[in-house]
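Fold this sequence, please.
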Amino acid sequence: MKLNRLLLISIILIMTGCSFFHKEHTLGNKPLVIPTHAGYAKNNRDRRITIFNLDNNEIVGDVSYIYKDEFMGDGDFYVDSDGKIYITMQLTGMNSVGHTIRIINPSTGLEEGAIDVNTAPNKMFDLGNNRILVTSNMILYGDSVIRNVVVDLNQRKVVGNLYTKGFIDEIQESGEDTFDIMLHGLTALGLDEKVYMAHYCPDSDSEISEYREIDNEGIGEAAYFIISNGYYYMYMCRNISLFNPITLKRISVLKTFSSTLGMGKMIKVNDKIYFVRYLSDFNGNDVDSVIVIDDNTHQVIKEIKIPYGGPSDIKYSAYKNRIYVTNSHGETIVEINPETDLVTDTIKTEDESQGDGFNALRLRE
């Protein structure tokens, strides 16, 4: 009698689509009409991405990227030419390490699939031709290397590997189909715990063979860089410095900060470098402005104040000739005219002055 009752309950659960281990298979998203030119701003705390229209700077809507019963879904994200979102799932449950890129279509609000990439995918970098480099934040001890993967978004699968002896921090295009990468070496993998630069070509390099140490003694730990006008501009946590790309020696310090903490990002627009700096424990010092550097004289020429403070990411829209800056303390996105370096608009959400804001930004043009 008891066995029949359990069998009946099981049948009912199957017929109704339920189970004791049921996963809530809905992201709770409403279908959105995505404009041709759009911005995507990510909020880590709420696990969602806010989409806005570049033509009129109006909010289109929000896209959640985590299911209700998942412990955490976090990491970097990427937007393809069709407006679909690819996000690395670092953690998907209690004590569970993620190994996929989740694909979400904002037009339907649904998950469209997943790409199995690696253990603990971390950052994503555009390699062109619908390919991205997905870095890892975990050592695969069986190989004594860190395996980073090249993903073809058309095929939705891994098509190559990049083996390194350190964690990749940043990658910048340095020539035709070649890139420079900044990474932190690891003693366990045969390198000192220092910061290195290396060259990388997705079509020919599967393993980095030469690591060039950055000469940063006494000036802070290198954390971010861009290549411009024959130089490296490097963010060193407590300053922005100019480096010789051949010798990797510092030429000059362009800006010094009072705090040694914080994450920084830079872009180049025309003949100027734009820099933003984000502190998780925001206190109003050094992190309320976009710093503008003349790429010819290497001098700071302006600091553009950002409403609420805490600029976290910065991107340039060639389509609109505008710079967009996300705010980490209050959900706002600031638009800047690079011709005048003036704030021309502030895109606001319902939570514009509440709690944590946006931490990452992508543009689809």
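Confidence is low (pLDDT under 50) at residues 1-23. DSSP finds one helix and 28 strands in the chain.
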